[in-house]
Amino acid sequence: MIQETKSLRKNQVMNRTGQMEKWFNSFCIGMLQLIHQENNTRLAESMVEFVKFGIIGVSNTAISYFLNVIVLKLLQPRHVPWDFIAANIVAFFLSVMWSFYWNSKFVFKTKNTSIQDILAKLLRTYIAYGFTGIVLNNILSWLWIEIAGISKYIAPLINLIISVPLNFIINKFWAFKKKI
Predict the structure, then answer these.
(1) Which whole number is the average pLDDT over 149-168?
(2) Are the C-beta atoms of 147 and 158 separated by less than 8 Å?
(3) Within 10 Å of residue 10's Cβ, how many Cβ atoms?
(4) How confident is the model at residue 177 (pLDDT cuts 50, 70, 90)?
(5) Angle at Cα 151 formed by Cα 147 and Cα 157, nearest 5°?
(6) pLDDT range class, residue 32, cuts 50, 70, 90
(7) Measured distance CA(167)–CA(99) in Å, rounded
(8) Domain ranges, ordered by start, for the chain
(9) What is the pLDDT of residue 41?
(10) Could you tell me which of 61, 50, 121, 57 has the C-alpha nearest to residue 91?
(11) Higher-confidence residue: 6 or 88?
């Protein structure tokens, strides 16, 4: 009888342990599915942001080129030897402002922020674009043109493959970082 009671208790404990293990496994699987689903949702949201960022980037490139040409045309009658530098500077500052405005409204959806916060994000945006648009692109262009022998008309297109995703990451996680 004592042996049967011990055996019965052991079976009950094993049953409870088995049930607890099943419950724990179900819980873990459920949590993993939830995390996976949440990660998939975040990934999908980031992909949509990236596409929007790309659309704004195309408009930014067009604006930048348009501004560059306008400045060159305005300075042409004056025969300014540094006209292309002035054109690049004006195009850079105004096109980054354009990009900042649309990225803050359309991509990263900055809302209800103070003037200080907006100015800080704008400064970070200028720094990000300054790094990728001036420093990185010049280094990459030198590598493509001087080392790899790629045409100087093709090199900027290759740079986009690196600079656009990098700009997106810098803008998303630094320039437009949401406060926690």
Answers:
(1) 86
(2) no
(3) 10
(4) confident
(5) 100
(6) low
(7) 11
(8) 45-175
(9) 81
(10) 61
(11) 88
pTM, entire model: 0.69
pLDDT of residue 35: 61
Q: Say which residues have a Cβ less than 8 Å from residue 67's Cβ, sequence separation at least 6.
A: 87, 90, 91, 94, 95
CB 140 within 8 A of CB 159: yes
Residues 137/167, Cβ–Cβ less than 8 Å: no
C-alpha closest to that of 22 among 34, 12, 14: 14
Q: Are 133 and 26 in contact (CB under 8 A)?
A: no
Contact 87, 64 (CB under 8 A): no
Tokens of 16: 């409870």
Cα separation, 143 vs 151, whole angstroms: 11
Structure tokens that stand for 3 in this block: 């042996």
Which candidate, 159, 62, 171, places its Cα nearest to that of 106? 171
CB atoms within 10 A of CB 163: 20
Please state the rounded mean pLDDT for residues 88-114. 90
Instruction: Output the DSSP codes for 100-148.
Output: HHHIIIIIS---S--HHHHHHHHHHHHHHHHIIIIIIHHHHHHIIIIIS
